[in-house]
Amino acid sequence: MLTPAQAKEAINVSIRSLQENDLAEARRVFRVAFGTFMGVPDPETFSADQEYIFTRWHADPGAALAAEVDGKLAGSNFATNWGSFGFFGPLTVRPELWDRHIAQALLAPTIDLFDQWGVREAGLFTFSHSPKHVGLYQKFGFWPRFLTVIMSKRVVARESSAAKYSALAGAGRTEVLSACRQLTDSIYEGLEVTSEIRAVSNQNLGDSVLLWGGDLLDAFAVCHCGEGTEAGRDTCYVKFAAVRPGPGAEKMFGHLLDACEALATERGLGCLEAGVNLSRSQAYRQMLQRGFRIDFQGVAMHRPDSPAYNRPDVFVLDDWR
Ligand SMILES: CC(C)(COP(=O)(O)OP(=O)(O)OC[C@H]1O[C@@H](n2cnc3c(N)ncnc32)[C@H](O)[C@@H]1OP(=O)(O)O)[C@@H](O)C(=O)NCCC(=O)NCCS
What we know:
- Strand 3 (72-82) and strand 4 (85-88) form a beta hairpin.
- The chain is 32% helix and 30% strand.
- By secondary structure, it is of the alpha+beta class.
- Strands 1, 2, 3, 4, 5, 6, 7, 8, 9, 10, 11, 12, 13 and 14 form a 14-stranded mixed sheet that branches.
- Helix 3 packs across helix 7 (194-202).
- The longest helix has 18 residues, at 170-187.
- The chain has nine helices and 14 strands.
């Protein structure tokens, strides 16, 4: 018996780079695809206050792929280069074209990008309850490991003495980027997220907070703030945060969360959101103790099936969405 996928006639898909003049349609497809999958009443309005497509394209246009069918955009995917680690998403396909192998046509060149970049390990975040999603990514060598939870708390007004990237210029910024690179390298060799710091700064998406211990950077967090960013209305979203490993890391993680909350306070935002992989158990426990609650959860899939920087003693916040 034919599966529903096999029963559908073959279509001609071509893959190319996503262009600036595709972005509005790519965003529409993104909304309608997620909105349809999640069963929201008006899919085109799904996550209308958040932005991924324009911002990720502007951060790295060469890492965005388009699928075209009959001269029209059928889907897109975005890869992210974090040095020795890479991830992809959002991956979306127009619902009327689902199960025609378009996602797979986008995934093959995505893996090629990871190979060209020389990433050691790659990952993604997906719906843990969906056999289709897990099965699709498994075909490309990604393996389901721990859950990643997206957590949030109401902001309690506070102040912090953390430094901010936005307050620096020229040489000061270069020094910070190199210190951030060194810090993430000490967690996972070659990991580097300075593209996120620069994207936030160049596109005015929020700010990055920095905690120094003398000349040494102890911790930093890259935050998106409010509508038109990955955070959305009234939210400060921690896109990536990391603490230097060592005996003081647990305490420093608390200071870092305070600094993020202070940034939210300063920006007048009522909600602080961050994702954490549950294998980073010490970080997760501390977030629970601090009153963060889980909004939703998915599974982190890894290629190959190894932990990368998802380990119990790692104080990193990110979710690979
Ligand atoms: C997820 C999404 C991108 C998939 O796109 P698609 O073009 O329909 O996917 P494809 O046709 O290329 O691949 C489907 C594959 O799913 C897998 N699959 C489907 N049902 C499965 C099941 N029950 N068990 C295991 N694997 C299954 C199969 O590998 C199948 O490929 P096959 O037909 O060759 O066997 C699309 O459905 C979408 O846009 N969804 C909404 C947004 C979203 O969820 N994005 C991804 C977030 S991580």
